[in-house]
Amino acid sequence: MGDIKLDANNNVILEGNVGIGINNPARPLHVEGGLEVHSGGSGGGFSFSDRNKPGFVNSPSNGERWVWYAADGTARLWSGDDKLSISKNGNVGIGTNNPTKKLHIVGSGPVAIENPNGEADILFKSGSNPSWQVGTNSNGWYVWDNNYRLVVKPGGNVGIGTNNPTNKLHIVASGPVTIENPNGEADILFKSGSNPSWQVGTNNEGWYVWDNAYRLVVKPGGSVEVKGKLFVDDDLVVNGTIRGTVRVDGKLLGRDIGPDKKTNAVQFEANAIQLAPNATDSSPHFALYHELSSSLGKDLLIVNYKSGYKQGIKLEGNVQTTGALTQASSIALKENVAELSGQEAMAALQGLNAVKYNYKADSQKEQHIGFIAEEVPELVANSERDQLSPMDLIAVLTKAVQEQQRKISEMAEELNTLKRQNKK
Length: 424
Known about the structure:
This protein has two helices and 29 strands. It has helices at 342-351, 390-423; strands at residues 4-6, 12-14, 18-20, 29-31, 46-49, 65-71, 74-78, 82-86, 92-94, 103-105, 120-124, 132-137, 140-144, 148-152, 158-160, 169-171, 186-190, 198-203, 206-210, 214-218, 224-226, 230-232, 236-237, 246-248, 252-253, 255-257, 263-265, 355-357, 368-370. The termini are far apart.
């Protein structure tokens, strides 16, 4: 049994171990059995020092001494100030004496969850619903239920539906990806360096592509509006109406029209249609090809060169029409009008040399009769001497016939005069 001493301040000093409920205490105070150690009053609490800091530190600043105590129904762990608290309903607070949740942390730095041997995560469980884990491992930061649902890799790549995202946002899914704004436009902004940004999304206009204005809009119902030029380097299949300017370097396929809906054609509807070949091509040309398998009624083609005189249309092949083929001849379109003399007409007629020939491009080598443009008289030749106008030839023939008829009439009159003279 140890000694019991009383010092000058009436403090009781016990030398040796003290046992309560045990005859052989192993520590300076050793309690066994159903005993409770109680400390109450304004200074009630249980104080203990750092094992590596012997002695009593009255005002600890580095964890030299700790005190468990209770105040206002909350148990607190103190060392210079309160570090941990447990409320009467079981809420645990770190950095706060008033925890409102099962774990309530107040602090200016991060909260660390570390597992030196593997994954470090937090498991969330709500009733009988499947549990979720949020944490980190060699894949990065993740959200997991029975598979990786969201992963953020070291370096910043984000994966949804994959644990190996290869881009800043990598989504693997069998269904659509939803971007929703209940109060307005829902879109994605694209930005490349200092270049202008682009937005792709949807609003009351439909689905759109936007920079500083709408560039492409897909309307509800499927109508597509291109707010600018549309360049197509491959086939373009159109089952609706094209409005505006279209440049096609590939094929432009139309829709089935006509009474039987079996005729594939491109149908243009506009106040004016301008069709032009590529001027930079080594052999620029414009061609219309038509082979219909059903009757469409009347086809009408109008070519208008700004209401002025131009060279017109060149056709490689025959022209067949079931209506009248006319040439504009109104006095309103003409100037420098002068009478063609009979002498000029007769001279031109004498200079015409009718020949038989076929066209080189005609694989059937069908024979024609006519004239050689380079050989005709100046009166009916064009400036390039490579074309002839039927109206010019008709005018020459008309004037020549009129001239011949005039001479026949004069000769008939002379003959009648001679007959009258012979009767006398």
